[in-house]
Amino acid sequence: MEPSSIERNVRAGLPLIRFMQTAVPLPLSGWLLKQGMARLHLDANVTRQAVSADGVSCEWLIPQNSPKDRVLLYFHGGGFVYGMTPQHIQMLAYLAQKMCVRVLMVDYRLAPKYPFPAALDDCVTAYRWLLKQGFSASNIVVAGDSAGGNLTITSLMRLRDSGDPLPAAAACLSPVTDFAAQSDPQHGFKDPLLPPKAIKFYNAAYVGRNDAHDPLISPVFGDWRGLPPLLIHAGEDEVLRQDAVRSEALAKTAGVDVRLEIYPRMWHVWQIFLTLPQSTQSLDDIARFLKSHLQPVAQ
User: Which of 18, 41, 92, 95 is 20 to 30 Å apart from 67, CA to CA?
Assistant: First the structure.
């Protein structure tokens, strides 16, 4: 199938994003993101509300008529160094309305100022805070993209090992799962969105002085047994496709109910480009999967 004009137009803008990741200083990027968040306006059917989850900054996205006892806990991407973006909020507003559930988005601490395990600690704290608020684990689903996909899997592993009740299901969008791999992409492959220099910076910022083989940093070295049903989406044209393929294999070997979807021609976390047909296709599949594992709403 030939790319649509929308896909061609979006792809034409990817080199600029790729360039900005290495050319724009991190403090300036953070400032620009904050300005964009302050100017963001959502559909009137979705309410934004800041909240502290036992000291962890979070943001509620609450669609009209959504039940109060079901929630999607979301961990955003951004290489562990960038905070929430307007694109993430818009994507989650779409998911919230599609699923008719409220979303709690975790504004976890960022590297390099706060390397591992700060972000993971914040994500686990936010999940446990939901339990304290009266949410049943069976009415919580978890998802995340890129760095947030990593935090989704590692949070599940830590919660399982701590004896906490696990959420009903989880979804990962282009997750990074191996920080120990030092080799360049296969045969000079060029990711449309992620330049190697930026990837090396993101990885070093998060790992810090820790061992990249730590399973809670690189879950490919961890125990996947006992994790809840898992959906993984990745793009055919992204360097992290192999992380997704390897994660599916590990989960399947461990007996996890897992499904991997590789989207042709797509790049890293294409879902944030909501004008793309492949974006809504992916998000609709994620919404169906997660909602199918939540308990039915009592009539």
Answer: 41
Query: Could you give the CA distance from residue 7 to residue 275 in angstroms, rounded to a whole number?
Result: 9
238 is catalytic: yes
The full length of the chain comes to 299
Q: What is the residue-averaged pLDDT of the chain?
A: 94
Check 7, 66, 76, 146 and give the catalytic one: 146
pLDDT digits (tens, 9 = 90+) for 236-245: 999 999 999 9
φ, ψ dihedrals at 28, nearest 5°: -70, -40
pLDDT in tens, 146-177: 999 999 999 999 999 999 999 999 999 999 99
Question: What is the Cα–Cα distance from 226 to 283, expressed in whole angstroms?
Answer: 25
Q: Scan for tokens 């009266």, then name that residue.
A: 134
- Beta carbons within 10 angstroms of residue 117's beta carbon: 18
Q: Provide φ and ψ at 67, rounded to 5°.
A: -65, 150
Question: What count of other Cβ atoms lies within 10 Å of the Cβ of residue 209?
Answer: 6
pTM, full prediction: 0.96
Pick the catalytic residue: 76, 233, 268, 293? Answer: 268
Asked if 295 and 266 count as a contact pair (C-beta separation under 8 A), the reply is no
Catalytic-labelled residue, pool 66, 155, 218, 238 = 238
**pLDDT of 93 higher than 90:** yes
Cα dihedral 123, 129, 134, 137 sign: positive
The domain made up of 15-292 has a fold known as: Rossmann fold (3.40.50)
Here the tokens at position 84 are: 């929430």
DSSP string, 49-80: EEEEETTEEEEEEEETT--TT-EEEEE--STT
